[in-house]
Write a structure and sequence with these properties.
413 residues; alpha/beta; Aspartate Aminotransferase, domain 1; 2 domains; 18% strand; binds 4'-deoxy-4'-aminopyridoxal-5'-phosphate
């Protein structure tokens, strides 16, 4: 087995983006991997190849190139199935991203609740958590027949699991929660949470946007009903997401967005739909993006993922220890289990100012509320500086971050 240093050096070569210079010649130190991961060369080549030789719309073309593009698109579905260990490949639905997938679920499931409710004035209760990304709050708030209850967080940014049983009543029908927080990194103990919720008959939805690229995600082991993620956080192009749903759940789920490609028969007064996944893939999908996702997953599966992911954890520990040493730095989110996301604030300096000063050193971090207002409120901060490490980052880059943070503090004092 290659040493970790060799493996990281090798994997870095696969990302041309990492050789980019900024501000007229500074090497780029890229730590915004929770917002967007760069793509390896194999993904760039796949996009080029689709537009050079396989440029065709899929599914209904009877000619050679269209059949070939369709085969590649459906092979990508099988690759995703394998990557998250779904039982059937028709449990994989390609979407434009996590946000759209969660909106589809919120609309379709609330319609299901409305159709089966025998009391129009009584709202169905659902559970979210206070650490959700806005994408897993707003779509549910838009459904007027739902009453949302929130599982709170403890001071360290872990969920307060003791509060969960009290939140579940006879009116509670669903829980939707994040696997790993995008703003503070907390990994939620899904097996424990999902087991309890399933024992009460709840529908279970997992937002795996920040976990699927950084730890094993196995939908059969988790036994969740639905799981969603976006491709641009897993070394693939933007504009593609995955909605996984158990076969029997997807069969029951109503269509909320119809059109070409999803139908069996359209008459002027009614439409019948194809079985999943086609039922949920109306319109021309992001074909090149899906092929890019296929290549990104191939790239990941051809690497020693446990070794790469362990390196991310080592970077997190190394950076946490080093930043904690700096006077005035407060780490936001100190859960025992975290993905490689490190959020912090500095006493007396706005996170946006830190972000700008780090950029002057060529360091790309995110300084923001990270689309998690309730999480920011919990920690009583307006925003945080977030360094999100990928396996291609190095301890030397973390050293640059630590040095630049010290320098930024010095500038302000
Ligand atoms: N959930 C989480 C945990 C995320 O990190 C993000 C993206 N930051 C989203 C949802 C939304 O994903 P997208 O913007 O790709 O739809």
């Amino acid at each position: 087995m290659a040493t970790t240093t060799d493996a990281i050096a090798k994997v870095r070569q696969e990302f041309p983006f990492l050789r980019r210079k900024v501000h007229g010649g500074l090497p780029l130190t890229y730590f915004d991997n929770a917002a967007m991961t760069p793509v390896p060369s194999i993904v760039q080549q796949r996009l080029a190849s689709y537009y050079q030789s396989d440029t065709a719309n899929i599914h209904r073309g009877l000619y050679y190139v269209s059949v070939e593009a369709t085969r590649q698109y459906e092979d990508a579905r099988k690759r995703v199935q394998k990557f998250i260990n779904a039982k059937h490949c028709d449990e994989i639905i390609f979407m434009p991203g996590t946000t759209i997938a969660l909106n589809l679920l919120a609309q379709a499931i609330s319609a299901q609740f409305a159709a089966t409710s025998n009391n129009d004035s009584e709202k169905t209760e659902i559970i979210l958590t206070t650490m959700e990304h806005h994408s897993n709050i707003v779509p549910w708030q838009l459904q007027t027949n739902l009453c949302i209850k929130y599982l709170p967080m403890l001071a360290n940014g872990e969920l307060d699991l003791d509060a969960l049983p009290q939140l579940i009543s006879s009116k509670t029908k669903l829980i939707s929660l994040v696997h790993a927080s995008n703003s503070i990194g907390t990994i939620n103990p899904l097996p424990e949470i999902l087991q309890l919720c399933k024992a009460h008959g709840l529908i279970t939805i997992v937002d795996a946007a920040q976990s699927v690229g950084h730890m094993p995600v196995d939908v059969q082991t988790l036994d969740c009903d639905y799981l969603v993620f976006s491709s641009h956080k897993i070394y693939a192009p933007t504009g593609v997401g995955v909605l996984y749903g158990k076969q029997d759940m997807l069969k029951q789920l109503p269509v909320v967005s119809g059109g070409g490609g999803s139908i069996k028969q359209v008459d002027l007064d009614k439409t019948s739909f194809l079985p999943p996944p086609a039922k949920f893939e109306a319109g021309t999908p992001n074909i090149s993006g899906v092929l890019g996702l296929d290549s990104a997953l191939e790239f990941l599966m051809n690497n020693d993922l446990p070794q790469l992911w362990q390196h991310e954890q080592d970077l997190l520990s190394y950076a946490t220890a080093a930043l904690q040493e700096i006077d005035g730095v407060r780490i936001i989110g100190t859960a025992r289990q975290k993905v490689s996301i490190l959020s912090f604030v500095i006493a007396g300096i706005h996170p946006h100012d830190i972000g700008t000063l780090l950029d002057f050193e060529g360091i790309a971090v995110r300084a923001s509320h990270h689309c998690t207002h309730p999480t920011m409120k919990h920690f009583k901060v307006p925003a945080t500086v977030r360094a999100a490490f990928s396996f291609f980052n190095t301890t030397a880059e973390v050293d640059l971050l630590v040095k630049a943070v010290s320098k930024a503090i010095h500038t302000f004092r």
